[in-house]
Amino acid sequence: MASFFKTVGANALVHFENIGRFGLLVAAIFRSLREARIYLRRLPEQMLIIGNRSLPIVVVTAAFSGMVTSLQSAYQITGYVPIYLVGSIVGESMILELGPVVTALVLAGRVGASIAAELGTMRVTEQIDALESLAISPVAFLVIPRVIAGLIMLPVLTVFADFVGIVGGWLISIATMELTTFEFFKGFRLFFKTWDAFYGIIKSFCFGFMITLIGCYEGFHTSGGAEGVGRATTRAVVVSCLAILMLDYVLAALLL
Question: Cα-atom radius of gyration of the chain, to the nearest Å?
Answer without folding.
Answer: 21
